[in-house]
Amino acid sequence: MGSDTKHPATPHAQQSVRADTLEQAEPPHGAAFVSRPISLIPAELGGLPATLASEPTSVRAWVRYPAIANQVNGLALVWIPHAVYVEANIH
Q1: In this structure, are residues 88 and 76 in contact, taking their beta carbons and an 8 Å threshold?
Q2: Quick one: 86 exposed, middle or buried, by C-beta within 10 A (0-12, 13-18, 19+)?
Q3: What domain range includes position 39?
Q4: 15 phi-psi bin (left φ>0, alpha ψ -120 to 50, beta other)
Q5: What gap in Å lies between CA 48 and CA 17, rounded to an integer?
Q6: pLDDT in tens, 42-90
Q7: What's the domain count of the chain?
Q8: pLDDT tens across 32-51, in order?
Q9: What is the DSSP letter of 81?
């Protein structure tokens, strides 16, 4: 999830945005049906400031899908105290 446009322009500077302004990114899947992860809704994110990573950080994170939760390898791009915006490495 995410794109390079959300990364800070200066690699070592951390920027802050409102967590409820982030949108779920959609990977290209063409016409194939793909179960998509469930994101927190804006009310769950609140108006908390989110910290943009100065550099994406490798993580292993739990990602919730409609029927299951899976651990995925990915990159932490943005976080608030109780949630992380993860770009998952799904192949």
Answers
A1: no
A2: buried
A3: 4-88
A4: beta
A5: 8
A6: 888 888 888 999 999 999 999 888 888 999 999 999 998 888 989 887 6
A7: 1
A8: 666 778 888 888 888 888 89
A9: T
For 24: left if phi > 0, alpha if psi spans -120 to 50, otherwise beta; the answer is beta
Question: Residue 59 contacts by C-beta under 8 Å, 6 or more apart in sequence?
Answer: 73, 74, 75, 76, 84, 86
- Give the integer Cα–Cα distance in Å for 78 and 25: 13
Query: How many Cα atoms sit within 13 Å of 59 on the Cβ side?
Result: 19
CB neighbour burial string for 43-54, b if at least 16 within 10 angstroms, e if fewer: eebeeeebbbbe
